[in-house]
Description:
Layout: H1 6-20, E1 32-36, E2 41-45, E3 60-64, H2 86-89, E4 95-99, H3 105-108, H4 113-124, E5 128-131, H5 138-145, E6 177-180, E7 184-189, H6 192-209, H7 216-224, H8 230-235, H9 240-258, H10 268-275, H11 278-286
Parallel strand pairs: 5-6
Antiparallel strand pairs: 1-2, 1-4, 2-3, 4-7, 6-7
Helix pairs in contact: 1-6, 4-6, 7-9
Amino acid sequence: MALKDIQSLRELAEMSIKVGSRVDYTQGGGGNTSVKLDNGYMAIKASGTRLSQMTENKGFAVVQVSDLKDVTADFGYDPLRPSVEASFHVLLKKFVCHTHPVYANIPLCSIEGTARIIKIMKEIDASYLILPYINPGKELADYMKKGLTEAIPQAVIPDHEEEFDYTDEDSNRRPIAVFMQNHGLVVSADTAEKCLEIHEKINELIAMEYGIKEGDFDAFAKDAAKTLYPDQQVYMSLGDVQQEIFAAVSFIHHVIINNNETIRGMDDSAMDFIGNWESEAYRKTVLS
Length: 288
């Protein structure tokens, strides 16, 4: 058995490489992308792998949209584990791009950030959701499916769960963007090109709103990689993935504080969930 929609897989890989090649958009094995294929299947980035390493033949898993059954091996691909976020990808448009950008995560990790998001989304004039922090996986997908969100202008609030049904072909009311506090950004569109365009525009506008340029992160990350004194070398020797995360987190802290806003951190229950979740333990082993 073989997938016939090869062009969509190529476009998925191209989109993944473009966002995955930028540390300011994704760090380590974070983020995920997907495309809905012909005959009720969806290809989604494999758990823990880097987006930048995806091709039209590897780096993704295949699931049935109807029940999320993993059928990757049935199509002859490497039997990689689908991303744990597959359950919310099926709710959105054909192409989905979920990243952890240092720009979008500034307002998402700031107590005052919601107002900034509302302001910049007026310039894009698209439907969107702003979600509080929800444990990733099924819990997040269930929350998104119900359309629960803050009462904000232009937010998509479905009247009935059926409007987010897995088999619903009318995707006009599905949100273009989903902002998840203390997590990241999701963009969905009918084409990979549109997905990338919206993703870039949102991050560009947020950077401008906070008085920074997208290129500012690169210089910051170079400085963050420098060893400042011996104890850092002894007690805090970081690998490549850890260094990417350290630079991203430090940059977000830096910009929030410089804008006189208040950092919003994950609470103890959220950290406990992540720390004890088998899916995250598995993801960590893939790039270790």
